Amino acid sequence: MTNRIKSAFTDSPLRDLGDRASTSLLAMLGVSLLIVGALDLYGSDYVTTIAIGITTYAALGLGLNIVMGYAGLLDMGYAAFFAIGAYASAICGIHFQLNFFLSIPIAVVVTGIAGIIIGYPTLRLRPDYLAIVTIGFGELIRTVANNWDYVGASRGLYPLPIPSIGGYQFMTPIQQALLAFLLLGVAVVFCNRLGRSHIGRAWRAIRSDDIVPESLGLPTLRLKIGAYIAGGAMGALAGAIFAARSVAVDPTNFTLLLSVQIIMVVVLGGLGSTSGVLIAAVIFVGLPEWLREFQDYRLLLFSVAVIALVEFRPQGMIPERVATRIPKAGARAARDTEKVDVGRLTVKEPAAAAVDGAPLLEVRGVTKKFSGLTALEDVSMTLTAGRIVGIIGPNGAGKTTLVNAITGVHHATSGTVLLDGVDVTAMIAHRVARRGVSRSFQTARLIDQLTVLDNVLVADYARSNLGLRHALLSPRAIRRYDAAAAARALTVLERVGIDQLAEICPPELSYADRRRVEVARALMMSPRLLILDEPAAGMNPAEKKELVVLLRAIAAEGVAIALIEHDMPLVTSVAEDVVVLDQGRVIATGDPHEVLALPQVIEAYLGAPTALEGGTRHGAAQR
Amino acid sequence: MDTFIQVVLTGFTIGSFYALVALGYTMVYGIVRLINFAHGDLVMVGAFFGWALLQLDWIEGMPMLPRLIVAGAGAVVGTSLLALVLLRTLYTRLIGRSTLGFMLVTLSVAFALEEIVKLIFGAQQKYYPPNDLSSETIDIGGVAVNGMDLVVIGLAGTLMVGMIWFAHRTITGTAMRALAVDHDAARLMGINVSFLIAAAFVIGASLAAITGILSGTYYGRVSFDMGFALGLKAFTAAVIGGIGNIGGAVLGGLTIGLLEAFVQGYLAGAWSDAVIFGALILVLYIRPSGILGERVAERA
Amino acid sequence: MNSNRAVRLGALGLAVSTSLLGLAACGSDDAGGGSGAIKVGVLAPMSGSVSADGEDMVRASKLVVEKVNADGGIDGRKIELVVADDACEAQQGTQAAQKLVTDKVVAVVGGFCSSAALPASEVFHRNGDLPFVASVSSNPKLTDAKYPGITRYIGRDDQEAPVTADYVADLLASKKVAIMNDNTEYSRAVAKSLKENIEKKGTVEIVYDDAIQPGQNDYRAALGRVARDGADTLVYTGFYPEFGILAKQWAQLKPGYRLVGGASSIDATVLTAAPDAVTLPDLSIISYPTASLIQNPQADEFRTEYKAKYDADPGQFGIFQHDAMQGLVAALKADPKKLDAKDLIKRLRDVSFEGITGDISFDDQGDRNAFPFLAVRSVDGKFAPAYSYSPDSGWAATN
């Protein structure tokens, strides 16, 4: 095929079709058919029934894996989704004589609505509240099912119509296995795609905390609700299949114990690991069947196994592997010529820097109080595109609080923050970030489970306009996006001098290199305003020099930089202006050399063990 | 028989049990900001420690009260030791590192404890020896008051007042409250965090063990699965009252107890668990910080 | 391109599987015929919370089978028991049933928990109505499905209700009745049916109909409400662990109404849990004729043999398994040459004999024609029958 034909093909709707019925999906369905074929040839109905039991746990495990493995949310009432799916499908069959396959989308939609009702208020709160609320939710659903006559109350619904498609009935164990394995195969593919997409990467980023992802422009609440609902949808699917093949649903099928068992399957397999979950489901259902004596000790042994794994091998039996690959030389070349093919994805470039003169950032009389304690009082400052301002002051002066107030982590009690003339005072952090503000943190906060490259790629989430649709249906679009973004990430890493570390995970990095990753991550967002919180901490003099060069180069491109630093020589050498904070108030602003000579500034620093000049500690030594 | 007062009395008794467990929850949560799912099962462990001690020969001859006190002391010591061992071997390395990991481990510990007790003592309910106080019923103005009602409410009340005093009037208690407000600041102020965590676990475990013994004596029966649901409702109580707040735990416990009694006595007992968890979801919608709690940091 | 390979692989799999599925539909089963031991399945909960009852069922089955085998078996062929654990749960029940089908047993005797027995019965039905002799599962749905393969030796939950209604309305002459269930399927079903049966009488008013939540421990608020609603009798249709504590609190409150426990409220532990309550004349419990209560020569023989072989007293429900196994043996012996499902299920329905649990014969749905009940009270620290019920003469005091 010549390149021309190839590209014509890649751009046609035909390609899209090929993409949707992709190789992985066909392969997975093939595997499903082979398993069912093998069961039919070599297995008895008994073995087949166990295999179907495994598919139920596997499907539930895959669904919960999205919630708990990818997004790190503890859902203790996952059985509720299973129940809603099973009941919704059963109601469709019994009360509306609807075909089983038509009832599946209904079950999924109903579950999604329930997920929003429960997820929205809860996920705004502390992450562990979700655990307790979901337990409550699970019990609530079970109690309703147990007392509501429409769904048969405690008797349940029975017997359900046998699923059939075009007259073919899924009735015998092997036929049911065919149905269960085919649907599981589809589920495996979609879960994998989701996990490997940019959304999956974003979920992994919100696993440990909210503040960093928000600062990178990730809408954490939406991502969490998305994970919760996506997981719920899988649960609903599993529920519908379960109902169809048991020919009955009743409230005893959906207990807290089931939710806990699914949690065990996911943890045993490995949080975030699709293959791990599948194998764990086989063990969880199969082992007690194989060793009948084991049955009585099942819960105890699996509990102990979970404890041991979390303590000593938190990644589970089969750790997840999600590192984005470094693009091959061809893509690198493309990157060098700035002709990265980004396909139909349009990258949202922040608007070009404002014309010289008009300030990019304007902080006007910002005050921030924490339960009576005033952390910032009437702070004002401005910052123009292309300039570097140093924000200095002793420990506890309110520097980080000021950054938090600007970036939307905290909202000012009074006063306003204007970004390019737009009031961002009360704006949510990720929206502020999307307006071109990026920051690093005082203590480098990287995502330990992701490679350096993926850490940087997370920051690109806001720029991609790929959605859930692409993640599920167009793996090729995701791959192309990944390749392009990875190429760009490598450029950024190269710029801070650590492109050779792209495939390493943060725990193996030196302190200075962690700082550099943070800077790279901030740069990946192509910011208009870059706020760096002590970027030089832990760097040696040579590295500091490189940093100075880098900062100047970035500023020269029209980016405004706010630099929080204790290293005064660094500040004086790179900053055009400084703002000095003490006890939440601005005590001086202006040219670095002049300001640092002011008596009130020296006074403020006398208490702090930080050097004003030359890195010595004379201020502290005098006391 | 005056049903209303009877229902209130019942509510206060049930609520006292919830409050005692909620106190343990709220103290640990206040410090480590993590849900200890195994806390409810410490009630069960305490109840079984007590039951096993009451079966011993040398204790059997004693009169009921000293017998209970000896068994209770043994249960408190045993349960506290268990909590300490669990803390040191399993929890410490997860605290501050992995919220999900901590919750998963405590959840598994809860189930492991239940399964172990089931293996040792069997799945059948065990019965505490009958005592005079719980069989004697006095009629006060048409309300049947059981001697044990007074003991439970009295003892629970004393412990609650004691805990509030402890939190506000002792150095350890004040340090715990400081830690609950700001972890980093408290650490900087030289507070020994790991000591306080251990102290909170031991106090929580002791309260749980006392709850277990009281429940066994009062209701007469204990079983391996008595703890988890109790723990969940107690945690709900702590959240409703305002997590991390000692007074809130008491208030939340009594609220849940009264709610449960009123649903049973006036509405529909079939729905009582649903009502309680529904109330929790409602409280989190309207006032996420609970009745007495400070604002929970809302983000996003 | 590798997608082509995948497509081909998938197509191959599809082809293989569909052809196999076609074959599977024509698969034959030749259970029963031939020589060698006759395999009989036992479906019982061998693990989980009621595993003691499962063990009891297996023991009772063995007593019958060993006697038959010692006497020369069925037309010279020995009976071999195949035990399958249903763990009292739907999923395990389905798997256990599949196992028995795969093992080609001629019939299955057992079923303790309805939650496992119902899905198992579905499996048996789909496998050519493999004979299922249900021993202890009392859920009406089991025989209401009208599968020809099922005969049941214990009473139905909805038999308990009319008998209890007679007890409350006729024998106790109650005027205002409260009905309390424990929110389980069984308990609610009995409560519902009891309400209908009492209402049919026209002389009794239902003043309270609600559930308690097992595990909550304190039911005084509910007991107080029953008193406020003016009931003269409270019927509890749930299981014995909560009945024990309910009875205890009822005795403490002295609310002035009778307490009647349903057929699942009886257990020796109630005597321990509520020692003050069980001695009160206002407390009685409806009961199936269980092992410790039944008084007839067969029962005495069973208790003696059981004690001799296992050095333990039989559980409460093993006698139903014992009678069910004897019924199967009778059906097998009736025509030992024809053991296929089609013939055997007819003979199982025609069985008629006097078992431990009374006169045994079946209606066209596979349920017992007449099923006796008892009402018990505590006498000298043990439960003993105070009244007995027979379908012909209704309730009468026992001597």
TrEMBL record, chain A:
It comes from the Bacteria. One of its GO terms (molecular function) is branched-chain amino acid transmembrane transporter activity. It is found in: Cell membrane. It is a multi-pass membrane protein. It holds the Pfam family BCA_ABC_TP_C. GO terms for cellular component: plasma membrane. InterPro entries: AAA+_ATPase, ABC_transp_permease, ABC_transporter-like_ATP-bd, BCA_ABC_TP_C, LivM-like, P-loop_NTPase. Gene3D superfamilies: P-loop containing nucleotide triphosphate hydrolases (3.40.50.300). Residues 361-608 form the ABC transporter domain. This is ATP-binding cassette domain-containing protein. The lineage of its organism: Bacteria, Bacillati, Actinomycetota, Actinomycetes, Propionibacteriales.
From TrEMBL, chain B:
One of its GO terms (cellular component) is plasma membrane. It is a multi-pass membrane protein. Keywords: Amino-acid transport, Cell inner membrane, Cell membrane, Membrane, Transmembrane, Transmembrane helix, Transport. It is found in: Cell membrane. One of its GO terms (biological process) is L-isoleucine import across plasma membrane. Pfam families: BPD_transp_2. It comes from the Bacteria. Its main location: membrane. The chain crosses the membrane at residues 6-25, 37-56, 68-87, 99-123, 143-167, 188-214, 234-259, 266-286. InterPro entries: ABC_transp_permease, BCAA_transport_permease. One of its GO terms (molecular function) is L-leucine transmembrane transporter activity. PANTHER family: BRANCHED-CHAIN AMINO ACID TRANSPORT SYSTEM PERMEASE PROTEIN LIVH (PTHR11795), HIGH-AFFINITY BRANCHED-CHAIN AMINO ACID TRANSPORT SYSTEM PERMEASE PROTEIN LIVH (PTHR11795:SF371). Belongs to the binding-protein-dependent transport system permease family. LivHM subfamily. This is Branched-chain amino acid ABC transporter permease.
TrEMBL record, chain C:
Keywords: Amino-acid transport, Signal, Transport. It comes from the Bacteria. Residues 38-378 form the Leucine-binding protein domain. InterPro entries: Leu-bd, Leu_Ile_Val-bd, Peripla_BP_I. PROSITE patterns: PROKAR_LIPOPROTEIN (PS51257). One of its GO terms (biological process) is amino acid transport. Residues 1-24 form the signal peptide. Belongs to the leucine-binding protein family. PANTHER family: AMINO ACID BINDING PROTEIN, LEU/ILE/VAL-BINDING ABC TRANSPORTER SUBUNIT. This is Branched-chain amino acid ABC transporter substrate-binding protein.
